[in-house]
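Exercise 3.2. Students should predict the tertiary structure of the chain below and write it as structure tokens, then compare their answer with the key that follows.

Predict this chain's 3D structure.
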Amino acid sequence: IHLRWAPQAPGLAAPPPREENALSSELPLARVSVIEMSDEYHISAAAVGSMLADLGARVTKLERPQRPDPWKRTCKKLYDDLNGKKFVQVVNYTHVGGQAGNHDCQQGQAALYRTLADTTMLVTNLPSQALDLWGF
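Answer key:
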């Protein structure tokens, strides 16, 4: 069996996009919000976050104050390339999952969960044990 595309009737063709359309000027991910939480010594999540930002997503990188991104100090160019289009916020999310074993609400936990609830995507390369503690 040989399949061929039949030519479309001129009246059935899709109209060309209008240049004045507000959506035609948007980047593909302009309406996507992303939270990036990563192990600072591995750049996989930072690279994915950078690609999403390049496509128009609003990416917020969360940095822990006790473990700042080492690339900021050791390779400023790489840090700038990976994070130039992101919003960077310093947040201590180390004990968000109640790591003391009692799973009591920790400082900042509710705020982080509210932020994640309004976010389209979470990008992380944190160990699965950490995510399990947080209830993911």
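Discussion points: The radius of gyration is 21 Å. Strands lie at 33-37, 58-63, 87-90, 121-124.
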